[in-house]
Amino acid sequence: MELTEFQDLMENLYGESDRERGIPPTVAWLCEEVGELAQAVRKGTPEQQLHELGDVLAWLASLANQLDLSLQQAADRYVEDPP
Q: Is the whole-model pTM more than 0.90?
């Protein structure tokens, strides 16, 4: 699945409820998921790490959708002009 397709999938599955929740709570959930990913990296199994990577990606897509921004465009920066 392409990054744009994944972002569209998250919009179709959760877009309405994500917008009802709002941006500040979405950022909080994203931060919580990053913390869970960090814990899985330190002490978890590869399966737990993969699960948490997916959760972080999903919450990042939710935030991008609420901001009306493209994750693909954000990623393209690393192709076109890496920092």
A: yes
CATH number at residue 13: 1.10.287.1080
**Number of domains forming the structure of the chain:** 1
Helix axes 46-66, 71-80, angle to 10 degrees: 100
Q: How do residues 26-47 score in pLDDT, each as one tens digit?
A: 999 999 999 999 999 999 999 9
Query: In which residue are the tokens 């978890």 written?
Result: 44
